[in-house]
C-alpha cells in the first residue's frame, strides 16, 4: 500500500526490508547506530542525518558503528562481500571517498574482471552527495563522474523517495559493487511509496515528462530543477521531455537517444563540474550516435568548474537552477542553436 | 592438518602432515625457482615477485586453515596460493596469460585468486588486503562459523594506513582476523630498519590492543606453533592478533632486480644458513620420523609437477578478443 | 681507572607466544629506550661518564640518541657519553653473545642488561667475572629482579666507581651447565632447565606441560613466575645457598593412572596457573652431573626451548655455584644510605673516553 | 441550475484518484448538433487519455476549455443549449457558473479511496462506491487491478452498491497466490465476499476475471445474481500467449509499453503514467512469481486451461457478453460462445480494454443488464 514518505524514510525502509528478508545483509558506517560505547542512549543518532534511525532496535548487531576509519571499514565491507555477506557501508559524505578510494576502485571494482569472473562483490556504498547544505567544499560535492569512470562499479543517484527505495533494494540484491548516491537536499522530499519491497532495475531511465521540443536529461536533485524549467517552458508552448537517468552506471543510452531522435534538441543538467562529467559524457554519446537527429548544439548546464563555495550567496549561484536550464533549452530553439562558451576550460 | 598441538609425538603434526607441509614448501620452491629461470628467458610477461626462501611462513600458517578460512595475500603471493590449495596448473597458466589460468589470463601473477579455496587474491596494492581480511573475518563472525580471515603484509606494507586502520578495526570489532607481517627485511629495495619508525610490529599491535608474536619465519615449527595458537584463539572468539615472521628473500623484489642494495654475499649466506626447507628436512629426518628418501621422492614429484604445469601452460590457449569485454559486471 | 659500563638492551625480548596464550606483557621499544635513558641518568649521577652499548636495529638506539640530543639542546648533560660496540647487527641473540664478549674484552666494569631470562643467559655465557646488573623487560623473568631501573643504575654506578666496596656491591650466582655428548658446555641456564619430549624448538617459549618431564632449577623461589615456580612451591631453595632442586613430572599416563606423588597448581607463565603432576623431587647438589631420564626431546633453558636431542645424544646437567657475578642492588643502596653516598654535590665527572680508547 | 435548457459540460472524474484533466482536443466544433453518446472531446489524465461522450443532447454553444490546458474535475469546459436559447443567457450561465463543491469533496474525504480486508487468501484491497440498489462486484483480469474499472465504478455506483477488488497477486493485495487456478481464484473471491459481507452479487468480470466469475457461478450459484463477461477468458481456448509472456517478461518501460498497447484498439491511449503504474506493480516483490504461477496454471502452452462456456450455458444465469471488435488478446469470436444463453455485444472500435476504451457504451450495457437505474 502506497503512502507518502520522505526519501530518508524510503532509504530506511529499504534497509529494513532487505535486512529482514536476507540475514546476510549487514549495515555499517560511522554513527549509523550512533553512540556505541558512549554513556548515553543506544541508537542515539541512527546516522548523521538519522537515515538509519530505528534499525538497530530491529536488527541489533547487524548494524555496526565503525571507527572513523573509512579505508578499514569500507575495505572490510568489500572483503565481507566476497565472503557471502551483502554489506551496506555508509560513507557518510561522498567527499570521504578520497581516504578509501583504493578499496573501491582497485579492489571492489576489479575483483570480477581481475579474477576472471570468479569473484562477486555484492557491496553497496551509500554516500550523501550534492550541494545546498551550506557544507562547503569537502562535504558537498557531486563526485558521480569519478565513479562512472571506473568499470566494475555501478553508480546510482535517485531523485525521489520511490526510486530511492527501489534502487537501494536493487543495489543490495545486485551482485556488483554499487555506489549509491543520496542527495542530502532530497532527504525530506515526499512522494507515494509502496510499503512493500520492490526493486527498480538498473539502466532504466525514468521519463518524468513527455515533450516533443527538447530533451532535458538529468539525475538527482537537478531533475527537480529540470521539471521546474519544463513547466516554465510549457507556459511558452515549449514542451520539454524530462529524462531522469536514475542510474549512471549502467546508463540508459536508449532512452536518451530515443528522446533526442524525437526532439532533436538536448540539454544535459549535471550538478557535477563540467569537465569529464555525466553531462559531457551524455553530450558526447549523443554527438557520436545521434548527430543526424540534432537540430542544435547540445547544451550542458552544470556546476561551474570551481570547488563548492560556503557562503549561501555563492552556493546558490553554484547549483544549476531552473532559469538557467530553461535558458539553455531556449538556446537550442534559437535559430543558431549555439551559445557563448560557458565553461571555463 | 591437526589442531592438536598437545599431541605427544616428537612433532605437533602427524607424519602425513609433516610430509604434506614439506610438499607444500617444496612445490613453492620449485615453482619460484622455475619462474626465475623462465622469466630470465623472456617467456613470462609482466612482473613476478618470488616467494622463495619464505615458504615456512605460508606452509606453517596454511596448515591450520580450511578452505572456508580466507586469506588476503600480497603481490608476492605465489607461495600463499600454493599453500592455500590453489591449483598449480591454473596458477602457471595465469602467469603465462592463458585462458586456462586461475583468472582466465586477466589477473596475472599479482592477482591470482581462488575464492573456492579461500584465497581472496594476491594484491598489487600494498596493504590493501588488510581491510579485506577484516571483511572475511567479519563474515565469519556474523555467520558464527568459526572461520578466520588472515591478512599477509610485508614489512613495507605495514606502514600503510590501511594496515594500521585494520588493526584498529579488528580490535574494535573483536574480529577473528590475523595479521601476518612477513618481514623479509626489504620494502622493495628499502630497508625496513629505515622505513619502519617503531621498529617492532609487536609494538604497533600493542598500540591497537592486539597481542603480537615474533617468530623465526624460517623455522616451520615456530611459525606452525605460533600460528596455531593465534588461529585457535581467533576461532574461539579471542579476537585478532599479529604474527611477525622474520624471514629471508632469496630473490630480488621482482625478477630482473639486480639487488645492488643488498650486502655482498648476503643472498649466498642466507641460502646457506637460513633455508627453511633444508632446516625442516634435517629436523624431521634427524628425529627419525620420515626418511630422506621419502623427501627426495616428494622433491622429484614437485619438479615433475612444475614441469608439467609449465608445459601445459605454454600449450594452453590464449584468451580471445571477446574475453576483453567479459567479466566486468554480473550478467543478468 | 675510569669505569666504563656496558649496556645490552635486547629489542626482541618479550615477543614470544606467551602474549597470545597467556596475556604476557609486551614492553614497547620506546619504553625500553626510556629505561636506558633512566639508567644512563643514574649512572651519570654516580660519576660514570662513558657507556658502551650494544648496537641493534630494533629502534632503541635511535630513541636513546634523540633523548640525549634533546638534553644536550637544553644545555643539560645528564648522560654519560655513549659508545657503540663495533660489530655487525644480525637481529638475533647472536648479537647479545657477541656484544657481551666484546664488552668483557673492552674491560667494562659491569654490564647493565635489559631483557628477560634469555638475554641474561646470553650475557652470562660470555661475561666471565664482569658483574651483570639485570633489568627485567622480558616475559618469564625469574632471574632479573623487578625494580625501577633508575635504582639499578644508581647501584651499578656506585658499585663500579668503587663507592661501594666490591664484597658488598656484588653477589655470586648459580647456573646449570648443559653438556651434550661430553665435551664443552653447550648451553647454560640461570634459573631452570626443562626436559620435554617434543623434538622441535617451535615458538621456543615453553607454555604447555603435557610433554614436560623433568625440571632442574638453580633456585626455587615461590615468588617467581615460570617453570621454576613448580620447584619453588615444592621446596624453596634460595639464590645464595649451594645447589638447586630437581623435579620429575608425571606423564599423562601416570596422571591418568593417578600414580604420582602430588599435584600442584603452578604459575608456569604469566596468567597461566596450570595443574602439574609431580612424581618426585630432590636436591641437586653443585658439581654433580645429572643425566636426565628423557631420552629424546628438547631442552628448554629458562623457559625457552633451545636444544633438540635424539636417543643417540648423551645429555648431562651440572649445577655450578659461584658461576658469575651480579650487582647486589639492595646491598649497594643500603650501603649508600648508611654512608650518605648520595649526599651533597655530585662527584665530578672523569674525563670522557674516546671510542678509539676502548 | 435554473435554466434547464442550458446544460454544462464539465471535466469528468474518472476513477478515484483523478483531480484534473488536460484537454487534448475537441472532436466537435462550436455550433454542432450533439446527440447523446456523441464523442465530444479527448481528455488526458495521468492514467489514460479517453474520449468524453455527450450525456445529453443539444447544440454546442460554447467551447470554453482550450486544448493543451489542464482543468480541475467539474470545471466548466463547454455549454450545450437548445438553439433558441439567447446568447445573453448562455453568457450569463457561463458567468454565473460555480464549480460545485462541498458534498462530493467531503464524501471523498470521509470515505477512504481504498479499503483492505483480511481474507483466507490474504490481505485484499478493494473499493466500495455507491449505496443501495443491486450489489455489483467488479473482477479485473490477469495483471490488472481495480483501477481497470476507472470509468465503470462511479457510473454504476449512481444506482448500485459497487465493489471492486484486487485479486491475490494483483494490485495492492497479497502477492502470494496460494492456488493459481480458476477454482482457487474463485475461492478467494468468495472468501472476500464472506469477509466483507457481500450477499448474492452481479459479477462483472474482465478477461481472466470473467473466467473467475464464471467459475464462481458454477461453484457457488447462489452467490451470483448475474454474469457480465467483458472480453472474458473461459469462452474458448485461444489467447494471445505472446502478450502473456511479454507482460510477464517486461521489466522496463520500453519493453512494457508495446505490450500494453496490444490491450487497446488505439495504442495512443497507453500513457507514460499507465506504463509507469504497471511497472510499479510489476516491480513489487512476489508479483513476478504470482504472474508466472497464474500463467502456468491458466495459460500454459498458450491455451486457456479453463474453458467453461458449456457449463455456464447450462447453468442458466443471466449473462451479458461484451467484447471489443479489435481485441488482440482474446478473439472477439469468443463473444458468441454462449450462443442464445447470453446477450453478446461486440463494440467495433475497441480492444481488449473495452470497458475503458468504450466506457460509455459498456456502462450503458452493464446498467441495463444488471438493472441499475
Largest interface: A-B, 45 and 46 residues
Q: Radius of gyration of chain B over alpha carbons?
A: 19 Å
Largest β sheet strand count, sense and barrel closure of chain A:
7 strands, mixed
The CATH superfamily title of the largest domain in chain A: Thiamin diphosphate (ThDP)-binding fold, Pyr/PP domains
* Spatial arrangement of strands, main beta sheet of chain A: 3-2-4-5-7-6-12
Number of domains of chain B: 1
CATH class of the largest domain in chain A: Alpha Beta
What is the H/E order of chain B? HHEHHHEHEEEHHEHEHHH
Keywords (chain B): Oxidoreductase, Pyruvate, Thiamine pyrophosphate
GO molecular function, one term (chain B): pyruvate dehydrogenase (acetyl-transferring) activity
Protein name (chain B): Pyruvate dehydrogenase E1 component alpha subunit
Domain Dehydrogenase E1 component (chain B): 25-321
Describe what is shown at a glance:
The complex is a heterotetramer of chains A (345), B (332), C (358) and D (373). Chain A has helices at residues 7-21, 55-59, 70-81, 101-114, 144-148, 161-173, 222-235, 253-263, 278-289, 312-318, 322-333; strands at 2-6, 25-29, 63-65, 86-93, 124-129, 154-156, 178-183, 190-194, 206-209, 214-218, 240-244, 247-249, 266-270, 299-302. Chain A is α/β, with parallel strands linked by helices and 345 residues long.
List its salient traits.
heterotetramer; C: alpha/beta; Rossmann fold; Tumour Suppressor Smad4; five-stranded parallel sheet; 15 strands; globular; disordered C terminus; D: 373 residues; alpha/beta; OB fold (Dihydrolipoamide Acetyltransferase, E2P); eight-stranded mixed sheet; 12 helices; NAD binding (chain C)
Folded structure, characterized:
The complex is a heterotetramer of chains A (345), B (332), C (358) and D (373). Chain B is an alpha/beta fold. Chain B has a single domain, classed as Thiamin diphosphate (ThDP)-binding fold, Pyr/PP domains (Rossmann fold), CATH 3.40.50. Chain B is 44% helix and 9% strand. Chain C has two domains: 191 residues, 3-Layer(aba) Sandwich (Rossmann fold), CATH 3.40.50; 147 residues, Tumour Suppressor Smad4 (Sandwich). Chain C starts with a strand and ends in a 20-residue tail after the last helix. By secondary structure, chain D is α/β, with parallel strands linked by helices. Chain D has two domains: 96 residues, Beta Barrel (OB fold (Dihydrolipoamide Acetyltransferase, E2P)); 260 residues, 3-Layer(aba) Sandwich (Rossmann fold), CATH 3.40.50.1820. Chain D is 31% helix and 23% strand. Chain D has twelve helices and 16 strands. The longest helix of chain D is centred in the middle third of the chain and has 15 residues. Chains A and B meet through α3 and α4 of A and α5 and α6 of B.
What secondary-structure arrangement, pairings included, does this model have?
The complex is a heterotetramer of chains A (345), B (332), C (358) and D (373).
Chain A: E1 2-6, H1 7-21, E2 25-29, H2 55-59, E3 63-65, H3 70-81, E4 86-93, H4 101-114, E5 124-129, H5 144-148, E6 154-156, H6 161-173, E7 178-183, E8 190-194, E9 206-209, E10 214-218, H7 222-235, E11 240-244, E12 247-249, H8 253-263, E13 266-270, H9 278-289, E14 299-302, H10 312-318, H11 322-333
Parallel strand pairs in A: 2-3, 2-4, 4-5, 5-7, 6-7, 10-11, 10-13, 13-14
Antiparallel strand pairs in A: 1-8, 6-12, 9-11
Helix pairs in contact in A: 1-6, 3-4, 7-11, 8-9
Chain B: H1 15-40, H2 55-62, E1 70-72, H3 78-84, H4 88-95, H5 129-143, E2 149-154, H6 161-172, E3 177-183, E4 186-187, E5 190-191, H7 192-195, H8 201-207, E6 212-216, H9 220-235, E7 241-246, H10 266-273, H11 276-286, H12 292-315
Parallel strand pairs in B: 1-2, 2-3, 3-7, 6-7
Antiparallel strand pairs in B: 4-5
Helix pairs in contact in B: 1-2, 1-3, 1-11, 1-12, 2-3, 2-9, 4-12, 5-6
Chain C: E1 4-9, H1 18-21, H2 29-45, E2 50-53, H3 60-73, E3 81-84, H4 93-106, E4 110-115, H5 117-126, E5 132-136, H6 149-160, H7 166-169, E6 170-180, E7 187-189, E8 192-196, E9 212-217, H8 228-234, E10 244-249, H9 252-257, E11 262-269, E12 272-284, E13 297-301, E14 304-309, E15 315-327, H10 329-338
Amino acid at each position: 500500500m502506497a503512502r507518502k514518505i520522505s526519501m530518508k524514510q524510503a532509504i530506511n525502509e529499504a534497509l529494513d526490508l532487505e535486512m529482514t528478508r536476507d540475514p546476510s545483509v549487514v549495515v555499517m558506517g560511522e554513527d549509523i547506530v550512533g553512540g556505541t560505547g558512549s554513556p548515553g542512549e543506544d541508537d542515539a543518532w541512527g546516522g548523521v542525518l538519522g537515515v538509519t534511525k530505528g534499525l538497530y532496535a530491529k536488527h541489533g548487531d547487524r548494524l555496526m558503528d565503525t571507527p572513523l576509519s573509512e579505508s578499514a571499514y569500507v575495505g572490510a565491507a568489500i572483503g565481507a562481500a566476497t565472503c557471502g555477506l551483502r554489506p551496506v557501508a555508509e560513507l557518510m559524505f561522498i567527499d570521504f571517498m578520497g581516504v578509501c578510494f583504493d578499496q573501491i576502485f582497485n579492489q571492489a571494482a576489479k575483483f570480477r574482471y581481475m579474477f576472471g569472473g570468479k569473484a562477486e562483490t555484492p557491496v553497496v556504498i551509500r554516500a550523501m552527495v550534492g550541494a545546498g547544505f551550506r557544507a562547503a567544499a569537502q562535504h558537498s560535492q557531486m563526485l558521480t563522474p569519478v565513479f562512472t569512470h571506473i568499470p566494475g562499479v555501478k553508480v546510482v543517484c535517485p531523485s525521489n523517495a520511490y526510486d530511492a527505495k527501489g534502487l537501494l533494494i536493487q543495489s543490495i540484491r545486485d551482485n556488483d559493487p554499487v555506489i549509491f548516491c543520496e542527495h542530502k537536499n532530497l532527504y525530506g522530499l515526499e512522494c507515494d511509496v509502496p510499503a512493500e519491497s520492490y526493486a527498480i532495475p538498473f539502466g532504466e531511465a525514468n521519463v518524468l515528462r513527455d515533450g516533443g521540443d527538447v530533451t532535458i536529461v538529468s539525475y538527482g536533485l537537478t531533475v527537480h530543477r529540470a521539471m521546474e524549467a519544463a513547466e516554465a517552458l510549457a507556459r511558452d508552448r515549449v514542451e520539454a521531455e524530462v529524462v531522469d537517468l536514475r542510474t549512471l552506471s549502467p546508463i540508459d543510452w536508449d532512452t536518451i537517444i530515443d528522446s533526442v531522435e524525437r526532439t532533436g534538441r538536448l540539454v544535459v543538467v549535471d550538478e557535477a563540474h563540467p569537465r569529464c562529467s555525466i553531462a559531457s559524457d551524455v553530450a558526447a554519446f549523443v554527438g557520436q550516435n545521434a548527430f543526424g537527429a540534432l537540430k542544435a548544439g547540445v547544451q550542458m548546464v552544470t556546476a561551474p568548474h570551481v570547488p563548492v563555495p560556503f557562503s549561501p550567496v555563492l552556493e546558490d549561484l553554484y547549483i544549476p537552477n531552473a532559469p538557467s536550464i530553461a535558458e539553455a533549452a531556449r538556446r537550442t530553439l534559437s535559430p543558431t542553436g549555439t551559445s557563448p562558451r560557458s565553461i571555463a576550460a | 592438518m591437526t589442531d592438536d598441538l598437545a599431541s605427544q609425538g616428537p612433532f605437533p603434526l602427524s607424519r602425513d602432515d609433516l610430509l604434506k607441509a614439506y610438499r607444500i614448501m617444496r612445490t613453492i620452491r620449485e615453482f619460484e625457482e622455475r619462474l626465475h629461470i623462465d622469466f630470465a628467458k623472456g617467456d613470462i610477461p609482466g612482473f613476478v615477485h618470488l616467494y622463495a626462501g619464505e615458504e615456512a611462513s605460508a606452509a606453517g600458517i596454511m596448515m591450520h586453515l580450511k578452505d572456508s578460512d580466507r586469506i588476503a595475500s600480497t603481490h608476492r603471493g605465489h607461495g600463499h596460493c600454493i599453500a592455500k590449495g590453489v591449483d598449480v596448473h591454473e596458477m602457471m597458466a595465469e602467469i603465462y596469460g592463458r585462458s586456462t589460468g586461475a583468472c582466465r589470463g586477466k589477473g596475472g601473477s599479482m592477482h591470482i585468486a581462488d575464492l573456492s579455496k579461500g584465497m581472496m587474491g594476491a594484491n598489487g596494492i600494498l596493504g590493501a588486503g588488510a581491510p579485506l581480511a577484516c571483511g572475511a573475518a567479519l563474515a565469519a563472525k556474523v555467520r558464527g562459523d568459526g572461520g578466520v580471515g588472515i591478512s599477509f603484509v610485508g614489512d613495507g606494507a605495514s606502514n600503510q594506513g590501511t594496515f594500521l586502520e585494520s588493526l584498529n578495526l579488528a580490535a574494535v570489532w573483536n574480529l577473528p582476523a590475523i595479521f601476518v607481517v612477513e618481514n623479509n627485511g626489504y620494502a622493495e629495495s628499502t630497508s625496513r630498519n629505515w622505513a619502519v619508525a617503531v621498529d617492532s610490529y609487536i609494538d604497533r599491535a600493542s598500540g591497537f590492543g592486539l597481542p603480537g608474536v615474533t617468530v623465526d619465519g624460517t623455522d616451520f615449527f615456530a611459525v606452525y606453533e605460533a600460528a596455531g595458537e593465534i588461529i585457535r584463539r581467533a576461532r574461539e572468539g579471542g579476537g585478532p592478533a599479529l604474527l611477525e615472521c622474520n624471514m629471508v628473500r632469496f630473490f630480488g623484489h621482482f625478477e630482473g632486480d639486480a639487488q645492488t642494495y643488498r650486502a655482498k654475499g648476503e643472498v649466498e649466506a642466507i641460502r646457506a644458513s637460513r633455508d627453511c626447507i633444508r632446516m625442516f628436512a634435517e629436523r624431521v629426518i634427524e628425529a627419525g620420523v620420515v626418511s630422506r628418501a621419502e623427501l627426495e621422492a616428494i622433491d622429484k614429484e614437485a619438479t615433475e609437477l612444475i614441469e608439467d604445469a609449465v608445459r601445459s601452460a605454454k600449450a594452453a590457449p590464449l584468451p580471445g578478443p571477446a574475453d576483453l569485454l567479459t567479466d566486468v559486471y554480473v550478467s543478468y | 681507572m675510569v669505569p666504563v659500563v656496558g649496556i645490552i638492551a635486547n629489542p626482541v625480548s618479550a615477543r614470544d607466544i606467551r602474549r597470545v596464550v597467556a596475556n604476557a606483557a609486551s614492553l614497547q621499544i620506546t619504553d625500553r629506550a626510556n629505561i636506558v635513558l633512566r639508567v644512563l641518568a643514574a649512572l651519570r649521577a654516580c660519576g660514570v661518564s662513558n657507556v658502551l652499548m650494544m648496537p641493534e636495529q630494533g629502534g632503541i638506539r635511535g630513541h636513546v640518541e634523540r633523548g640525549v640530543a634533546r638534553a644536550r639542546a637544553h644545555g643539560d648533560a645528564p648522560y654519560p657519553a655513549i659508545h657503540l660496540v663495533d660489530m655487525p647487527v644480525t637481529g638475533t641473540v647472536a648479537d647479545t653473545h657477541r656484544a657481551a664478549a666484546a664488552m668483557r674484552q673492552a674491560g667494562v666494569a659491569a654490564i647493565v642488561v635489559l631483557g628477560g631470562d634469555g638475554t641474561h643467559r646470553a650475557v652470562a655465557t660470555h661475561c666471565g667475572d664482569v658483574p651483570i646488573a639485570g633489568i627485567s623487560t622480558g616475559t618469564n623473568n625469574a632471574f632479573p629482579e623487578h625494580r625501577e631501573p633508575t635504582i639499578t643504575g644508581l647501584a651499578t654506578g656506585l658499585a663500579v666507581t668503587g663507592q661501594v666496596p666490591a664484597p658488598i656491591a656484588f653477589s655470586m650466582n648459580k647456573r646449570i651447565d648443559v653438556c651434550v655428548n661430553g665435551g664443552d658446555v653447550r648451553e647454560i641456564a640461570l634459573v631452570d632447565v626443562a626436559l620435554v619430549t617434543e623434538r622441535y624448538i617451535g615458538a621456543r617459549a615453553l607454555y604447555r606441560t603435557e610433554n614436560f618431564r623433568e625440571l632442574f632449577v638453580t633456585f626455587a623461589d615461590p615468588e617467581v613466575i615460570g617453570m621454576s615456580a613448580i620447584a619453588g612451591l615444592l621446596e624453596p631453595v634460595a639464590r645464595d645457598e649451594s645447589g638447586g632442586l630437581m623435579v620429575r613430572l608425571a606423564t599423562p599416563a601416570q596422571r591418568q593412572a593417578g600414580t604420582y606423588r602430588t599435584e600442584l597448581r603452578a604459575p608456569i607463565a604469566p596468567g597461566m596457573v596450570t595443574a602439574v603432576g609431580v612424581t618426585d623431587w630432590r636436591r641437586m647438589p653443585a658439581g654433580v652431573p645429572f643425566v636426565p631420564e628423557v631420552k629424546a626431546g628438547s631442552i628448554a633453558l629458562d623457559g625457552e626451548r633451545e636444544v633438540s636431542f635424539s636417543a643417540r645424544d648423551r645429555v648431562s646437567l651440572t649445577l655450578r655455584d659461584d658461576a658469575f657475578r651480579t650487582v647486589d642492588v639492595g646491598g649497594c643502596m643500603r650501603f649508600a644510605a648508611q654512608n650518605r653516598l648520595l649526599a651533597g654535590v655530585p662527584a665530578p665527572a672523569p674525563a670522557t673516553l674516546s671510542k678509539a680508547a676502548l | 441550475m435554473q435554466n434547464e435548457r442550458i446544460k454544462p459540460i464539465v471535466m469528468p472524474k474518472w476513477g478515484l484518484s483523478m483531480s484534473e484533466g488536460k484537454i487534448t482536443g475537441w472532436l466537435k466544433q462550436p455550433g454542432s448538433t450533439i446527440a447523446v453518446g456523441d464523442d465530444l472531446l479527448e481528455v488526458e489524465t495521468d492514467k489514460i487519455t479517453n474520449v468524453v461522450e455527450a450525456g445529453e443532447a443539444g447544440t454546442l454553444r460554447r467551447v470554453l476549455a482550450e486544448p493543451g490546458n489542464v482543468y480541475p474535475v467539474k470545471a466548466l469546459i463547454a455549454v450545450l443549449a437548445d438553439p433558441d436559447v439567447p446568447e445573453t443567457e448562455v453568457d450569463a450561465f457561463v458567468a454565473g457558473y460555480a464549480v460545485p463543491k462541498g458534498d462530493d469533496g467531503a464524501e471523498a474525504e470521509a470515505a477512504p479511496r481504498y479499503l483492505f480486508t483480511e481474507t483466507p487468501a490474504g490481505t485484499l484491497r478493494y473499493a466500495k462506491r455507491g449505496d443501495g440498489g443491486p450489489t455489483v462486484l467488479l473482477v479485473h483480469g490477469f495483471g490488472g487491478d481495480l483501477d481497470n474499472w476507472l470509468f465503470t465504478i462511479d457510473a454504476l455506483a449512481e444506482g448500485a452498491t459497487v465493489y471492486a477488488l484486487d485479486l491475490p497477486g494483483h494490485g495492492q493485495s497479497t502477492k502470494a497466490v496460494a492456488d493459481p487456478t480458476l477454482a482457487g481464484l474463485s475461492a478467494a473471491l468468495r472468501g472476500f465476499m464472506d469477509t466483507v459481507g457481500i450477499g448474492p452479487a452481479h459479477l462483472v468480470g474482465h478477461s481472466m476475471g470473467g473466467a473467475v466469475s464464471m467459475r464462481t457461478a458454477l461453484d457457488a450459484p447462489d452467490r451470483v445474481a448475474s454474469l457480465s463477461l467483458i472480453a472474458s477468458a473461459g469462452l474458448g481456448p485461444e489467447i494471445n500467449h505472446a502478450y502473456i509472456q511479454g507482460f510477464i517478461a517486461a521489466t522496463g518501460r520500453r519493453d512494457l509499453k508495446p505490450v500494453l498497447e496490444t490491450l487497446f484498439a488505439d495504442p495512443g491511449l497507453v500513457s507514460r503514467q499507465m506504463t509507469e503504474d504497471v511497472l510499479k506493480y510489476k516491480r513489487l516483490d512476489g508479483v513476478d512469481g504470482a504472474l508466472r504461477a497464474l500463467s502456468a496454471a491458466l495459460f500454459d502452452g498458450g491455451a486457456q486451461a479453463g474453458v467453461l462456456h458449456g457449463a455456464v450455458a447450462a447453468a442458466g444465469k443471466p449473462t451479458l457478453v461484451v467484447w471489443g471488435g479489435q481485441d488482440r488478446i482474446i478473439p472477439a469470436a469468443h463473444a458468441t460462445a454462449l450462443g442464445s444463453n447470453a446477450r453478446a455485444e461486440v463494440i467495433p472500435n475497441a480492444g481488449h480494454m473495452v470497458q475503458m476504451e468504450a466506457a460509455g457504451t459498456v456502462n450503458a450495457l452493464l446498467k441495463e443488464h444488471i438493472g441499475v437505474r
